[in-house]
Amino acid sequence: MAFVKDMLRMWAHSWKRFISIAMITLLGVAVLTGIYAGCRDAFRSTDRFFDAQGLHDVQVLSTAGLSNGDIAALRKVNGVAKVQAERSQEVTFDLDGRKSATMQEIGTDGIDQPYLQEGRMPKKAGEIAVTRKFIRDSGKRIGSRLTITPESASSDTSDTNDTNGADGTNETNGTDEAPSFPTKLTIVGVVLDPQNLSNPDGYSAMTSFRSTATTDYTFFAPSDGVTGTLYTSATLLVKGAAAESTFDESYENTVKQVTDRIDGTVKTDRQKARRQELLDAGNKKIADARAEADKKFADAQSQIDANRQQFNQQVDQIVSMQAGAAAAGAAANGANAGAAAAAGATTPQLDETTRETMRETIIAASPELTQAKQQLDQAQSQLNEQKASTEQTLKTKENELKTSIPQVRWYVQDRQSLGGFSALKSDLDSIQSLGNAFPIVFLLVAVMMSLTAMARMVEEDRSLIGTYVGLGYGRLAVASRYLLFALLACLIGGGLGLIAGFLGIPAFLLVVLQGMYVMPGLRLEYDWLYGSLGIALFVVGVLAATIYACVQEMRQTPASLLRPKAPRAGSRILLERIRPVWNRMGFLSKVTARNIFRFKSRLIMTVGGVAGCTALIVCGLAINDTVADLGIKQYRDIYQYDLMVVSDDSDASAMRTKVASDGRVTSSLDVRIESGDLTVAGSGDGDSGKAGSSGSESIQLVAVPEKHLSDLGEMVTLQPVSSGILGTSGVGKTGSLKLDDDGVIVAQSAASALGVKAGSKVRLTNGDGVQATAKVSAVNRNLIGSDVYVSETYYAKLFDSKDAKNTKNSKSSEDSEALTWNAMLAKLSGSDTSQTDYAESLEEDSSVMKAVSCAHMADSFKFDLMGAVVALIVALAGGLALVVLFTLANTNVSERVREMATLKVLGFFDREVHHYVNREMMILTVMGVILGLPLGRLVGGMLTMALNMPSLYFEVEVKPLSYVIAAVATMAFALLVQLFVNPVLDRIDPISSLKSVE
Q1: How far is residue 626's CA from residue 954's CA, in Å, rounded to a whole number?
Q2: Cβ–Cβ < 8 Å for 410, 59
Q3: pTM for the full model?
Q4: What is the per-residue DSSP string for 165-184?
Q5: What share of the chain is helix, strand, coil (3-state, %, to 5)?
Q6: What does the angle CA 567 – CA 568 – CA 570 come to, to the nearest 5 degrees?
Q7: Which parts of 947-989 fold into alpha helices (H)?
Q8: Cys-Cys link to 941, which of 220, 354, 442, 727 (CB 3.0-4.6 A)?
Q9: In sequence order, what are the residues at sequence separation of 6 or more whose Cβ sits closer than 8 angstroms to the Cβ of residue 799?
Q10: What gap in Å lies between CA 841 and CA 847, rounded to an integer?
């Protein structure tokens, strides 16, 4: 019992060490669990939402639309739980200028169901539900009416085609018709699209430049009133996928098994079958056209034959009359009356030659008959020419049919192809990577500080330990005094850390996340396993340090422990050997130097602890500086143009005329901009940029006219980059990179995320959904957005006319190879404010789809999520620095009580004692800061390498001010600690402190 009382008394006496260990454990566990818990809560709530709304696991698109046969084939695939055929249509409407939207049918099989936020779901034809983004932009509300106009050559939103004719008809073959929606609409509800959780009222890190294949809004309509038997896509749910977390690798593996089956069996067969359907439909149209033409020609021929027969009858009648009259005259001049009577009674018989001669004579003598014969001959000639021409045309169409109908292609995509899904996943993964890295530093610092504190605690009780061991207490029992002390401090600190880690930090992160994404049903959850393991990790580290300290002391005999520890043997330090310096130092300065460098363990612990804390602060500020400079570097350094204007293909000429007439442009470059995708296959595909790399990135495909390839360098800074280490990259000379016809130039932001480098093969998808394998000729320095530059010639080579036919932006074979330059990069005159105002005024023009001012983008670019995380990291790092300095300072004082007492006996005033002790701590702190500043830059580079976010590349930047802030903050913490240490120095009693242990 006395042993326990003494142990409790010892614990109470060491309350400062207890608080230090508890605080370090609290901060470490909070960092370890907090960021993880915040991301996990977001992952889980989003996964529940996706399951509740039936977000598709697989989506199948086709360049020729999907038929009932395709849907039936997909239902037979092993592993497919449910298939939903979807119909959609692209439409336009007037909203302060021409805007586009996607009319999306609400499926009846429970897949991709919109989430109702306000009002009710549409049920009748003409009713729609819209997104909050549309409500915000349009100012409309529930009950408002809207009139839409279907796009003439479009029937879907999946960047696929359905072989619609150029005249805008919906027939694709004898039975299939493209979807068509009502045009008079009434808003009855506001919904959230499960495919895009972006918060329209929050902040989006990226600006999307829309091409002709992208719409501004999505409208959801019921099946009532929707016509058409051709489907724009098919969405699938996979068996067992709902039981997995959509963000885990197990989910991806489950879905991949089904996509592989579709790619391996159904895809090839249905592509051939669908193309054959189109060929059959084309042949049927030709056959129907031939039959109809033959019928028309037969009717025309019958009419001509009837008219010619009537004409011949008239002529023959005249011939007969003339022949009868001639015979009657001959009989009147004859002698035989009987012969005359006989001649008058019968028509004279004429041979064919005589009759034909008389016919020609009669026709020639009559202008009316001549004209009638000419008309009949002309009609017959025209009919013969039409028959020959029609037959030739039909034969030509028969010959061209196989070449005019392209090979049908299926695109099998999973959730990673959804921009909103991949952006959310990447954001959370990147933040979680920070949460996985920082606790390592906290753990190391915790072990170092625990070793320092517990080693001193054991050393102070050296004689007491010898007494207990001499009295027969086991070494384990004696060591348990310190092990239980450390364990209790870890458990209390860890428990408080769990509260902060599973409640405080996640609540803070989720507030920021909800400013970027809409996550219905979000709630905070506790993970017992992860929380317990988090505490256990710090318990093991701290107990290991405590055991080491105990073993170091208790391996001695009780007699040795009962005697005071022999003072450290005198030795010279390196500075003493530098005579010019040493001789000019004062006495106290020499003592300070010896105290600092002779006690190497204290030196290492203090410098290492301060350096670690400083490095964390620098690392956080480095990430903040990197993010803060992204907009300026991209929109003022890399982008040399001031304005980007994008229009619809049909308005491209009007857009250029409008911009030119305003007189603000000093130089410009016409380009074609399309929204597409860049995909790198796995290592099994020879096209990957590096072994095992995979993934997809949304890109902005920029095609440059062949005659103006050299002008691209005047609008965009072209600098080749190569991968560096620790967040750095090798940047080549400006202007050394040229766009040519041998490959594409890929933005560094996309190349870094996908592991692409010069010489890699990638798969590009253009605005029409056509895919092609392209060679990467170079990687260009780019921080925001994922631009891919391609020459006009190489674009035509990749996406030739055969691939481009029958798309929703289809062109005739004569002009399908000519690109429409639907965008302009321009340099403007005037101030930044005037340029921003001009861009806003352009967006009000009906011919302009999007106008972006680089000056506005540079000033307005923000990254709230990363800024919030950085603020959290810096705050925790500052707290850790304060605890570390407090622990080291108190340990330093407790080790040197007799020394301080001696100084007081020698006549040192309290202020001089303060100065004597604090000067050592300040020097050690300065040394730790000097080591921590470059260490922080190193760690910051490593962390930014892990932040692979969509369309963002973090080019590590640490401003001089950040180094100053980190150094000043650490020094300020050191000064603050002095305020706590000085009273301890004042309370040292020289008499009691100098008493001999014996």
Answers
A1: 6
A2: no
A3: 0.70
A4: -TT---BSSSS-B--B--SE
A5: 55, 15, 30
A6: 115
A7: 960-986
A8: 727
A9: 766, 768, 770, 772
A10: 12
For residue 949, give the DSSP letter: B
Q: Does pLDDT of 386 surpass 60?
A: yes
Neighbours of 25 (CB within 10 A): 31
- Determine the pLDDT at residue 422: 76
Q: Distance between CA atoms of 932 and 936, rounded to whole angstroms? A: 6
Give the whole-angstrom CA distance, residue 58 versus residue 416: 10
Q: What is the pLDDT of residue 690?
A: 40
What one-letter code names the amino acid at 115? Y
Q: What is the pLDDT of residue 356?
A: 73
Asked if 788 and 699 count as a contact pair (C-beta separation under 8 A), the reply is yes
Taking CA 462 as the corner, what is the angle to CA 460 and CA 466, rounded to the nearest 5 degrees? 155
Quote the CA–CA distance of 674 and 209 in Å, as a whole number: 8
Structure tokens at 260: 């592989």
For residues 221 and 696, give the distance between their C-alpha atoms in angstroms, rounded to a whole number. 30
Amino acid at 775: K
Instruction: Give the CA radius of gyration of the chain.
Output: 44
Q: State the greatest distance between any 2 C-alpha atoms of the chain, in Å, as a whole number.
A: 190
Dist CA 517 CA 197 (whole Å): 5
Nearest alpha carbon to residue 485 among 2, 6, 7: 7
What the block records as the tokens of 168 is 């805008």
Phi, psi of 235 (to 5 degrees): -110, 140
Give yes or no for a contact between 406 and 63, defined as CB atoms under 8 angstroms apart: yes
Indicate the helix (H) or strand (E) that contains 902.
helix 897-905
601 close to 880: Cβ distance less than 8 angstroms = no
| H/E element, 464 | helix 462-470
Cα gap 963→957, rounded to integer Å: 11
316 token code pair: 């023959």
List, in order, residues 6 or more apart from 450 with CB less than 8 Å away.
Answer: 21, 24, 486, 541, 542, 545, 546
Upper half-sphere CA count for residue 172 (Cβ side, 13 Å)? 30
Q: Are 382 and 300 in contact (CB under 8 A)?
A: no
What is the 3-class SS of 586-630, one letter each residue? CHHHHHHHHHHHHCHHHHHHHHHHHHHHHHHHHHHHHHHHHHHCH
- Please give the pLDDT value at position 1: 72
Amino acid at 202: G
Q: Is the per-residue pLDDT at 889 higher than 70?
A: yes
What residues are paired with 780 via a beta bridge? 720, 747
pLDDT of residue 415: 87
Identify the bridge partners of residue 98 per DSSP, sorted by sequence position: 94
* CA distance readout (Å), 865 to 173, 207, 691, 868: 51, 16, 32, 5
Q: What angle do CA 202, 643, 719 make, to 5 degrees?
A: 95
pLDDT tens track for 836-867: 889 888 887 878 888 889 988 888 777 666 67
Return the amino acid letter for 964.
V
What does the chain come to in residues? Answer: 998
DSSP string, 809-874: T---TTTTTSPP--EEEEEE-S-HHHHHHHHHHHHTSTT-SEEEEHHHHHHH---HHHHHHHHHHH
* Burial class of 454 by CB neighbour count within 10 A (0 to 12, 13 to 18, 19+): buried
Name the strand (E) or helix (H) holding 652: helix 652-662
- For the residues of 187-221, what is the DSSP string, one character each? EEEEEE-TT--B-TTS--S------TT--SEEEEE
